[in-house]
């Protein structure tokens, strides 16, 4: 882990000196968890790429402000969360151009792609609803763990929380999803 941080710090120094290749390598190394984090906040796979593009622009313009290169991942996570939240707020103020039927059809198509192993559409819908119904701090951890394929230590670093908190949130997130999908303890899920 120390060698990875040193290598990442060296890339940050190079990126701060306007080395485009170093900046590209930094972003590519962190792309999968970054995409998962953005999706956990935005909740719409079609909008993730737009937010990621905005994040890339922010990284390019703000990399010089990073004073501790060894803290690149937490810095990037904060930047990404802010951009995703900004996007979500802007989206909330816009009316949806899709009709209800089109939105439902689009949701069904996306859910089918994401959850190919699930046999029934109803299960897909319940899983997506359950994921959106759990608090954001749990949704972030579970998406980073499964979609980003990050270790507990990497998730802790990205979210700037202790590893034990990651473990606890992941256990709680799994329980909330299971309970919601199987219709157990629905009121408890809503209360959290």
**Residue-averaged pLDDT, rounded?**
79
- For the secondary structure, the number of strands is 0
**Helix and strand sequence:** HHHHHHHHHH
Give me the CATH fold name of the domain at 1-94.
Rna Polymerase Sigma Factor, Chain: A
Main structural class = mainly alpha
Major sheet characteristics: none
Taken from the alpha-carbon principal axes, the silhouette is globular
Q: What is the top-level CATH class of the domain at 1-94? A: Mainly Alpha
- What is the straight-line distance between the termini? 34 Å
Low-confidence stretches: 186-192
What is the CATH homology-level superfamily of the domain at 1-94?
RNA polymerase sigma factor, region 2, helix turn helix motif
**Separate helix tally:** 10
- Binned, the helix content reads over 70%
Named at the architecture level, the CATH assignment of the domain at 1-94 is Orthogonal Bundle
Using the CA coordinates, give the radius of gyration: 18 Å
Strand content: under 5%
Short description:
It contains 10 helices and no strands. With 192 residues, the chain is mainly α. The protein is globular and about 55 Å long.
What does this structure look like?
It is a single chain. With 192 residues, the protein is mainly alpha-helical. It has 10 helices and no strands. α6 crosses α9 (163-181). The two termini are 34 Å apart.
Structural topology:
Layout: H1 2-16, H2 20-42, H3 45-62, H4 72-92, H5 100-114, H6 121-133, H7 136-146, H8 152-159, H9 163-181, H10 186-191
Helix pairs in contact: 1-2, 2-3, 2-4, 2-7, 3-4, 5-6, 6-9, 7-9, 8-9
């Amino acid at each position: 882990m120390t060698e990875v941080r040193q290598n990442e710090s060296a890339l940050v120094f190079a990126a701060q000196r306007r080395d485009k290749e170093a900046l590209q390598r930094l972003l590519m190394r962190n792309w999968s968890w970054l995409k998962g984090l953005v999706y956990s906040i935005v909740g719409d796979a079609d909008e993730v790429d737009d937010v990621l593009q905005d994040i890339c622009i922010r990284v390019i313009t703000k990399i010089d402000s990073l004073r501790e290169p060894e803290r690149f991942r937490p810095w990037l996570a904060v930047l990404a969360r802010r951009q995703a939240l900004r996007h979500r707020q802007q989206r909330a103020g816009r009316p949806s151009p899709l009709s209800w039927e089109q939105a439902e059809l689009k949701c069904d198509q996306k859910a089918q792609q994401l959850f190919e192993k699930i046999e029934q559409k109803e299960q897909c819908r319940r899983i997506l609803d359950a994921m959106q119904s759990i608090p954001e701090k749990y949704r972030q951890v579970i998406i980073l763990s499964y979609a980003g394929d990050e270790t507990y230590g990497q998730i802790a670093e990205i979210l700037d929380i202790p590893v034990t908190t990651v473990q606890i949130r992941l256990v709680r997130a799994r329980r909330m999803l299971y309970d919601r999908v199987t219709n157990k303890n629905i009121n408890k899920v809503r209360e959290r």
